[in-house]
Structure formats: structure tokens, C-alpha cells
Amino acid sequence: MNVFTWLSGRFSKRGKAMWLFERGAVRAKKHDHQGAVDDYTTALDMPETPSDVKCMALYNRALAHVAAGDDRKGADDLDTLVAMDEITVNVKTMARVKLAAIDGRASKTRA
To answer: Of 4, 44, 60, 102, which sits most exposed with the smallest number of CB within 10 A?
Structure first.
């Protein structure tokens, strides 16, 4: 890959969104949940972000919200993800599993 190809990919809409997604993942790994949420949100809010990147960012933002202790925001993101048409069945399944875990925790705290 030459430098021009790398630079043009880096500054494409997909490249910018992926860069934010990857930075969010690094922040989440370092337990900087708010920083991760901010990066994922910025990627989601960018015009013309590809749908696959939006799905990844939405799923990971849900996980960051839950890790930060905000199950409601995490569940809202997962509900949005499940309602999307442009995602694969396995992503919907993973989102439903996470929603069930959140609901299970909420049931235990109410009991």
C-alpha cells in the first residue's frame, strides 16, 4: 500500500468513522467508558457513516454504557440495534442476549 492510498483511506468517510470506532475500543479497554461513548457517538453522528460501522459503534456504545453502570442507555442502544434492518442475524442475536442479561439483572435488583 502506498502512502497516497493510505492517506485517502484515512480521510474517507469510512476511514474517519473507523478511526473513531477503533479509538473508542482502545478507550473502552482502558476503562475510559465516557471517552469510548463519546467516540462511538461521534462516529454514529457523522453523515454518511457506513451502516456496518454504525452497527459496530452502536453495539460497542451499548457495552460501554453498561460497563459504566448505565443499563438503561445500553438497553436503548441494543433496542435500536435489534430494530435495524441492515445488520446480520448474529449481531441481532448478540444484542438480544445482552438485552436479556440486562433485564435479568434488573429483575434481580427489583426482587
So the answer is: 4
